[in-house]
Amino acid sequence: MTACTMAACILILCTGHALADTLPLRHGAYVSEGTDCKDPPNVALRTYDGRGLGSSVVNDCRGRVLSRLGNVFQIEQDCREYGGPKLERGIERSTIRVDGPNRYTDLTGGSGESFRFCPGLKP
After folding, report:
1. How much is the pTM?
2. Within 13 Å and on the Cβ side, how many CA atoms surround 2?
3. Where are the domains of the chain?
4. What is the pLDDT of residue 21?
5. pLDDT recorded at residue 20
6. Beta-carbon neighbour count of residue 64 at 10 Å?
7. Is 9 exposed, middle or buried (0-12, 13-18, 19+ CB in 10 A)?
8. What is the largest CA-CA distance in the chain?
């Protein structure tokens, strides 16, 4: 094996984990429990693209799993933040319980807010 081929293999192995989904959830839009999927308010809307969980205040999130215990994930996300004169990136930690491929509960700070997948709703 040539040095170039070996370097390419190492690069693929090192980046493979980064391409994997952060959480075992369907990609798309989620709304908080009790919210209709038709035209939900921004505050009740979350998106999951396989890399991280976005909202009306953050997007382009790049998450990684810090720990997992059963279906509870401690994640850290590097996201683009909205709301200021300059789009900045910020790091946040969250605790997410995956209740199934179409549902999750945000346990961060003891909130316990549950979200469900909305098929057809564009993130």
Report:
1. 0.79
2. 3
3. 21-117
4. 79
5. 55
6. 15
7. exposed
8. 58
